[in-house]
Design goal:
Elements lengths: L2 H19 L7 H4 L16 H24 L17
Helix pairs in contact: 1-3
Length: about 90
Amino acid sequence: MSLLTVAAIYFILWWTVLFMVLPLGYRSQQEDGEVTVGTVESAPTKFRGGRVVILTTLISAVLYATYYLASTWFGFGITNIPNIVPSFE
């Protein structure tokens, strides 16, 4: 596998996982009862961007390692996934 392929797969995994991690531990200003003037009530009270990035990176690394082991050692590839749409030949 080329380095570009590894980077592309990891990039796609990272962005997908980011949107799953973002809502974890989210508290809005309305829930805390401290709405800052000039902001919407649904804005986060304390945005922890560093924690989100680290958690996203760790989860993505584990998912990529699982994919790498499945494809390299066990020979599982995209062709092993059964087709959901039937062939009309």
